[in-house]
Amino acid sequence: MADWSPRPSTDQETAPLLRDPDAEEDNAENEEPTLMDRINSVAQEPLTPLSKVLLVIALILLLLSSVFIGLFAGVQHKLNLERGRHGEGPPSTISVTFTATATSSSIATTTLSTPSPTGIPEEANHIPVCLTGDCIMLAASILSSMDTNQDPCENFYEFANGGWLRAHPLPADKGSFGNFEALAQDNEHVIQRILEDKSSTTSFISSSDDQILAKLRGFYSSCMNESYLDTRGHEPLMVVINNIRQMYRRKELVIKGEIEENAFQGLTAALAYMHSRGLGALFSFDIEGDVGVDPNHLVLWFSQPSLGLPSKEYYEEEDIRKVYQSVIEKLLFAVSEEEEKVLLRRSFESSPVLIEQDSIWPPWPWPPWGGDDGDDDGDNGGKKPVNKTKRVQKLAKEVVKFESEIAHASLDLDILYQDPIATYNPAPISNLTTALPQIHFDEYFSTFAPRNYPDRVIITYPPYAHSLSEILNNTSKDVVEAYLVVRAALSLSSYLGMGTEAWQAQRTLVETLSGIKKGAVGDRAEYCVGQVEGALGFAAGRYFVNETFSGESKDKGTKVITDIVKAFQRSLKHIDWMDEQSAKAASNKAQTIRVKVGYPLSPDTTNPASIASYYARVTGDEKTFFENVLSASVNDEIRGWLQLGKQRDPNAWEMYPSMVNAYFNPPANEIVFPAGILQPPFFNKDWPAYISYGAFGHVASHELTHAFDSAGRLYNQQGKLEQWWTNATSASFQSKLDCIIKQFSAYSIDDGKGGKVYVNGNLTSGENIGDTGLIQAYRAWKAQYDSSHEAGKEYFLPGLSYTRSQLFFISFARVWARSMKAAAAVQRIRTDPHSPNNYRVDGTVFNIPEFAEAFKCSSKARLNPPPEKQCIFWGRS
């Protein structure tokens, strides 16, 4: 690796290596006075009036000479620009700023032989550098984030982010933290001020705004009221659990005037109650477009459920299973003890009291099946004392086993996320009712949409319904009941007081899976603002946008996106694997993509009445945080089901305005960028273009490229699943896809236990292709350079010894800085379709020759591979 440490320049090495002291003494007397001696002698003499006049004249002439030299340099620079404006090659002699920490740096002058990875831009010697406060802060942010001891051609992620990673150690209460999370915190602080400072929203005076702000502040206040949460204990959770139990334990189900005996007679009602409150169990339904017929017609989709553990791999790890089983035991114990307290209280309130056996949960003796070999963990007729601990342990073990079977019956995530054809299986609703007879779907649907019973459903994985039916038939009804209780408790216990056994149990699981330090809890206000955003995000977004996102920001952000779309269209004729017919169709699709920036119009965040109506079912009570969360969940679920059978709302968004994210929606053929991500370090309307196009431009190009990735390419410009590329183009694309799958499958992370976990190249293929869109952002920046330069938007920043092209790539890499615990990294690599951030940076520039050109990387550098090893999707410049 090259040594980029500062070295003395040659003009500092003027003295001989060895000296003779005696010879120096002999020569001292005979030496002529030096120039400095003469100057000192003159300086000590008093100035005559004539000397003073001459000195003033000399200073004036020196000043005039400086002015004329500056004017000449400016004219010469203008002539150079006219001859060739884009020449940015670094000179051989450069001044390099080496930053050791965020607060200290040293500057040295050194001579490097070309090619070199960094250098002062030629134009920087002639063009004024921006010295405003914003420019200085931006430059300081970039400098402090870097580690210039790293060779950018070998480890670009560390080169761009090493300083940031050192300056931002991972907080004890977080398993992962990066620039995305840092910006999310900044956005939350804006919302926090709105929630806490009533004077911050005085510009809104409508009655609807008063209603919205009262609901927002009430929700936030209820979350912050920890003492009230502690006082209530498990009470709110027990209300939900008792409702689930009562529905599940119905004695009979009347169908067509007859009583049907069924081991799962109450399962349908219990599931409908849970799903209406956002509590996942057994299966899931979504309302989305019918991509095979009409993508804008919203229909019913049946799929597998979320799991208690992040993915099926965890159920195979003994240490994780033990922790999970222990957590379930604690939750079941907590619920059992709460039931006993209620029964005991009733006995004191009414004496004598008759308590029916069916009112007790867990069933007593618990569980109701007989023990093994006559031991005391089963129902032995009361001959031996009941061992409650063993009963709970046995039930928890059975719940883990039951959920493990559900996990293994589920479709692998790489297929679920990356193969829209395999997961599109339309069928009559009778297919589902036949495959899963334990669920009475007519009754289930009446909970959500009583006037709109679907006769058709799209099943993402048909074998799952059959497998679930078999699993249910082979499982005790008491285990299924315990599973439902555990799913509710795991989902809702985080909204209880931290002193409750249920909160502490679920927290143990969170700490284990994410690597968070035991007992480390983050700032309550930060947590509560996040809860407000999750429940009332569009309402909070109205005021967030008002304070952070001007119309000019929206226009300039949109321009970056549209410039990238145009660059993509221009690149299509240079793509070697795409024929003319397919290229034309791809250009048409890119042209018709709907671009949404800033904030939605459904609900209309500019209209408070629209927002108030949207959140009509949310209580916003100042005390009952748990109930506020449930009411928000009910609001979301019911609103979603009411869209069944209707046309897609073209103004609807899936993300709220303050969110630090973006997305591409294939059936709607739209890319969406909330105002939350159009903030530093991604975007600022006044930044130089090479910074904005490198940072936010990559986000924009990433989402655009999703329209043509391994999954997105299967949707046509109307969002319909269709073969709209020629067979030859599809076959050629597959070879590119195989290339990038192979590349990323070779990357691995440390599992924290001395082993490695490899990236799933299939699962991450779509996102990795999306990241290749960075080249379109680069081309878009280059295409607008002339006009941007004329408008003064390509100015230099102080102290940055890098070309504009280099800073473009540095800006891209900087946004992906992230520290992560090993446990959290393992969880992400198993469940997240995005690759680890360091590979999102290095793996992306590996396939972009322009990066190696910008940094003058040698042919042997790791990030300058030979062409045959690169996965070039969008042609070469």
UniProtKB/TrEMBL annotation:
Record-linked PROSITE patterns: NEPRILYSIN
Tell me which residues make up the Peptidase M13 C-terminal domain.
661-871
Spans through the membrane: 53-75
Record carries keyword Hydrolase: yes
Q: Which domain of life is it from?
A: Eukaryota
Q: Which cofactor does it need?
A: Zn(2+)
Which keywords accompany this UniProt record? Hydrolase, Membrane, Metal-binding, Metalloprotease, Protease, Transmembrane, Transmembrane helix, Zinc
Bias (Acidic residues) ranges: 22-33
Q: Does the keyword Membrane apply?
A: yes
Database matches in Pfam families: Peptidase_M13, Peptidase_M13_N
**Region entry Disordered, spans:** 1-33, 359-388
- Limits of the Peptidase M13 N-terminal domain: 152-600
Q: Which PANTHER family does the UniProt record give?
A: FI17812P1-RELATED, ZINC METALLOPROTEASE FAMILY M13 NEPRILYSIN-RELATED
Protein family per UniProt: Belongs to the peptidase M13 family.
Q: What is this protein called?
A: Endothelin-converting enzyme 1
| Gene source species | Lentinula lateritia
